[in-house]
Amino acid sequence: MKKPFQIHALMCVYNDCVTLPLALDSVRDSVDSIVVADGAYTKYYRHFLKFDKTVKPWSTDGTLEMVEVFKKKGLPIKLIECPDGKPWTNQVVKRTALLDAVPPKDWFVILDSDEMLYGNIPGGIHEVMSSGCIQGHVPLFNVGLDVSGFKPFWHPRIFLKLPGMHYERKHWLICDFAHRVIEETYPSWGTNKFVLAHLKIFRHHRRLAPHMSYMLDMGAKGWLEPEAKLFKTEQALSEVKEWKSKTKANWLT
Fold first, then answer.
1. Residue 79 belongs to some domain of the structure
2. What is the count of structural domains for the chain?
3. In Å, what is the CA distance from 106 to each residue of 86, 162, 167?
4. Contact by Cβ (8 Å): 52, 210
5. Backbone angles phi, psi at 204, to 5 degrees
6. Which phi and psi (to 5°) does residue 98 adopt?
7. pTM (2 d.p.)
8. Which residues on adjacent β-strands are paired with residue 38?
9. What is the DSSP letter of 157?
10. Which residues, other chains included, contact 118 with Cβ-Cβ below 8 Å and sequence gap of 6+?
């Protein structure tokens, strides 16, 4: 019997071969599929070149080969490569490509390549789905050398895919068809059945140094992604159009 919906893990990667196995292995038994988007985005790539002139817009450290290894082991992984061998426009566009791979009414979990989930993951996802909310927060720990890493903060990571859902302006702002920020507009359910561990400190030093430098620069500028104006992809527009036709909600914009 076909399931009424599926659960997907969405993951951005770029030269993350050190931590990627931990991320993939932590969700392999808890989701129906894993969607991976590879490649740098333009501003980050230009910044990375200041540290290493040999880097490419796509992963070259064994990340892509590792994805293939996990696929051969039976993990249902869909790989989205950087467009035409060029960097993504920005992180908003890259992350929206992940959302476009999820059909409306399915659920998804956001997991970066330097993170892993630990605990009763299926139980936590089911708790959020049963709450009546369309999003769920989980405790996030920044694992590192500072004692503050032992203090969790709640982060939205579990979502029901809505028609026209997309990212805007900042790399964590998921919006609905009307450009409303999901986290600020819709009720959320917090589950502590599992936790999310952030393993940034374990990244390879060739990736960590430029990454931390870039993040400091983005933070100083308010985290606004370059060229991340209000937009919707063709996939998002198609989803909204189909939804309107089925619900006859012609009053929606």
1. yes
2. 1
3. 30, 8, 17
4. yes
5. -60, 145
6. -65, -45
7. 0.88
8. 13
9. E
10. 26, 194, 195, 196, 197
